[in-house]
Amino acid sequence: MLAFSRAQADQFTDRPFKAATDLKSEDEIFIVPSSGDARPVQTHPNPIELVSNIKLHKIRKRFSLSNTVMNQIRSAYQSRSPHIQLPQGGDLSVELGVQHIEDEILNRLRSTYVNKSASLLPYFGTAQEAEEVNNHTLICGASGSGKSYYVFRELLLQPELADRPVYIFSPHAHNDPSILYLKKRKKKGTVLRLDFKSLVANKVQVNMSMFEPRSVVVFDDLEGLPRRSVGDYNLRSTLFGAASELFVQGRHKGIVAMCIAHNIFSAHEIKSIRQEAAQLVILARGSRATYERFLRQHLGFSKEQIKECWKMSGRSRWTLFHLSAPTYHCSQYHVKVF
Question: Which domain does 163 fall in, by range?
Answer without folding.
Answer: 129-337
